[in-house]
Amino acid sequence: MRRLAICIILLCGFAHAQSKSGVPDFSGTWAPYRGGRGADPKLAPPPATPLVLKPQYAKPYEERRAADAEATNRGEQLATGAINCMPYGMPSMMSVAIYPLEIIQTAKQITMIQEAFSEVRRVYLDKPQMPIDDVPPTYHGRSVGRWQSDTLVIDTVGIKESVQYQRIPHSDRMRLTERMRLVASDILHDQITIEDPVTLEKPYTYTLAYRRMPDYEMVEFVCAENNREYVDDQGIVRMRVREK
């Protein structure tokens, strides 16, 4: 009886992770998962590959990162698009602090909704990707996906050059390749590879991990016009002092 009970539990978990079409079911809400002490190392995201920028981009990047670190040490914050209610865009929207990500999966499209700023991204399944020059630049680009066994492979192009991930510069030639798969019934990995022949010496790959949040209901997140903070001439975020 004990063996039977274990089999039933395993089958239920497997069924939960499968859609009716036989491909994995990513539907639901997912919270960022970074492992930690006592966590199974197989479930935590692997380390990123080295970031190697071309020389003309490496120095400005390092200077900007150093300025970020100095501002943080002073208890200050350098401005980002978020201060002006701008979307994070791709690939940053796939992991914003502790905010969850909702995935809605259908046969023709996978829709991803980030709770932070209520950003929406659409992945069109089994459609050809457009030539990169024909894709109008947007915050999230154009994403098409296909299933390779238990892995969803997503190709994204057409991301605005002003949209950056961790200050990494990119050109209009940038391409993102994602490989999303379940490493356990409640743990999802998204391996993201950034390719850019203009700014990068070689592709940069990192992995995000998520834990399923059963029964979680997404919260509305509206970024209203910010009238209490401003950016000074040094790029520092400041609070406006109300006059008495």
Task: Walk me through what this model shows.
With 244 residues, the chain is of the alpha+beta class. It has a single domain (19-238), classed as Calycin beta-barrel core domain (Lipocalin). The chain is built from 2 helices and 11 strands. It has helices at residues 2-16, 55-73; strands spanning 28-32, 101-105, 109-114, 119-125, 142-148, 151-157, 175-184, 187-195, 204-212, 229-231, 237-239. It has a 9-stranded mixed barrel. Strands 10-11 form a two-stranded antiparallel sheet. It is globular and about 50 Å long.
Describe the secondary structure blueprint for this structure.
Layout: H1 2-16, E1 28-32, H2 55-73, E2 101-105, E3 109-114, E4 119-125, E5 142-148, E6 151-157, E7 175-184, E8 187-195, E9 204-212, E10 229-231, E11 237-239
Parallel strand pairs: 4-5
Antiparallel strand pairs: 1-2, 1-9, 2-3, 3-4, 5-6, 6-7, 7-8, 8-9, 10-11
